[in-house]
Specification:
16 helices, 45% helix, 6-stranded mixed sheet, 14 strands, alpha+beta
Length: 512
């Protein structure tokens, strides 16, 4: 039986195969090639090298194609991209058989964070032109992504001295072993001992370098008395809690259009929760609407993690944006319903919470569910946080009340603290209770989880390659662009999108 035979490696070929014949007509790399070639990288903020004497530089369009292809194929390391440029047929076709080294590739990403961020916005113009965006409803949510900062590179003030002492102890231990080996080697020729000495010297050199690093961090703590935790590898990263794990990372935010699940706005913050992220994301959505000249009203739907009185009051009356936020109380009740029914009831129990107290506006007091009065305790509202003021009401009639055990454990009687915005917040909560808003809140997850699932599972983006908040924001903006790019190819198809680009019917805008 004969097998299929390959080409003889030593055989001389007179005519090489045309590089273009290697790539099929419906291959997505052709879309990458056509789209990037149509971009004005200078207007987008990319650094264009000067063509001077000496070795000519690489075309920034080619380097951008490398990154776009790499991120689409889960290849982000500059060294791996260098290798792929030499052996990957699609990449060889895309950059016409060029082979830039890893430093050239890495420097392009490092030096062009503004341009990389702007290309995300630029692609939204194309999506708008192709009628792929509506912005009638957007879902806003965040996800935690790991930073280039392992736990072994996180140092706490209260442990830095003990770490320094352990290192010093280990150094002394190595020096003692080296001294003993020197004596042994002086008395007899022992190759094994010589190898051990080399190993110890290597370990000692590494430990001394680490010791210098720890001493430098200790000095940072001494110069900044308020600093409690130092993230050595990526100093901008912060502890993020995600599914029971606490790791150094960032909180990545997206606003996703419901029509085709395309990301219309993104951001990265150091904050570990979403309580203060409503305003920044709403402002970004508004900016996108202005740039794309979209005038219809937008429903911005968020989960209970965004429920903040300060943020709601700042955004509920913004023109063109209708914020819809899941109530923290509703979310908490939903979670409690899943817990063990035999668990002890919390105080105040259901029916005796602050929303169950009736306000008497004429007398400026509250009446509890049992008919007892709670009188105002302060003349002027007291500030409890930035922009939030409260009044305190207390009852002196709780003694002997049969409902006291369900209402309060305070010996002086039930006290409630009521925000000066309570009336507005009550109206907002009633609005959130309407059927159409409840439906949008239920739909929120299917809007926002689609991009996160694709970015993390399909594109393999679970951690950042870059360090520093600015570079991290640029990298996340780029992965959002890659997601949108791949999504649009799947929606439109190769032939349709290629025809749109080749027909020069895109009207690209400069967003830098």
């Amino acid at each position: 039986m004969n097998y299929i035979q390959g080409t003889v490696r030593e055989e001389t070929v007179l005519f090489n195969e045309c590089l273009d014949n290697v790539i099929e007509e419906d291959n997505p790399v052709r879309v990458i090639d056509a789209y990037v070639d149509n971009l004005d990288l200078r207007k987008l903020g990319f650094k264009i090298p000067k063509l001077e004497t000496g070795k000519p530089p690489y075309n920034p369009h080619d380097l951008l194609k490398i990154y776009l292809y790499g991120y689409m194929e889960r290849i982000r390391s500059s060294r791996k991209l260098e290798k792929e440029c030499k052996r990957n047929q699609e990449l060889r076709w895309l950059i016409k058989d060029l082979a830039p080294d890893f430093k050239t590739i890495a420097d392009f990403r490092k030096d062009n964070k503004d341009g990389i961020k702007n290309i995300f916005k630029e692609f939204l113009f194309f999506c708008k032109k192709m009628n792929l965006l509506s912005l009638s409803t957007v879902g806003i949510d965040g996800t935690k992504l790991r930073a280039q900062n392992g736990q072994n590179n996180v140092f706490k003030r209260d442990r830095i001295e003990s770490i320094e002492k352990k290192i010093e102890s280990k150094i002394q231990e190595y020096l003692k072993e080296l001294e003993q080996n020197d004596v042994t080697e002086a008395n007899e020729l022992n190759l094994k001992e010589g190898n051990e000495t080399k190993g110890l010297l290597k370990k000692l050199k590494k430990l001394l370098k680490y010791d210098d690093k720890v001493k430098g961090i200790k000095e940072i703590f001494e110069n900044d008395p308020e600093l409690q935790v130092y993230f050595a590898n990526d100093t901008d990263s912060r502890f993020q809690s995600d599914k029971g794990k606490i790791r150094p990372g960032y909180n990545a935010q997206t606003a996703v259009d419901d029509l085709n699940k395309l990301i219309v706005a993104n951001d990265v913050t150091q904050k570990s929760n979403d309580m203060e992220q409503m305003t920044p994301m709403i402002e970004k959505v508004q900016a996108v609407k202005e740039e794309l000249k979209i005038e219809n009203e937008t429903n911005a739907v968020m989960d209970a993690g965004y429920f903040s009185e300060k943020e709601i009051m700042a955004n509920k009356d913004k023109p063109g944006i209708n914020i819809i936020v899941s109530d923290t109380k509703v979310a908490a009740n939903s979670n409690n319903a899943r817990e063990n029914k035999n668990s002890p009831e919390k105080v105040p129990s259901k029916g005796y919470e602050i929303q169950d107290f009736i306000y008497d506006k004429e007398r400026d007091l509250y009446v509890c569910p049992a008919g007892k009065e709670l009188n105002k305790q302060n003349e002027n509202p007291r500030q409890v946080s930035s922009g939030i003021f409260v009044n305190e009401y207390r009852s002196r009639q709780c003694d002997g009340c049969v409902h006291r055990s369900k209402c309060t454990e305070n010996k002086t009687g039930r006290t409630i603290r009521v925000s000066t915005n309570r009336e507005s917040m009550d109206d907002f909560k009633k609005e959130m209770g309407k059927d159409e808003n409840k439906k949008l809140i239920c739909k929120r997850k299917e809007i926002v989880e689609h991009p996160f699932g694709t970015i993390k599972r399909n594109l393999g983006f679970t951690y950042f390659m870059q360090k520093g908040l600015g570079k991290v924001q640029a990298e996340f903006s780029f992965i959002c662009f890659v997601y949108n790019f791949k999504r649009v190819i799947n929606i439109m198809g190769i032939k349709t999108i290629m025809h749109a680009i080749q027909a020069n019917n895109l009207e690209f805008k400069a967003t830098a």
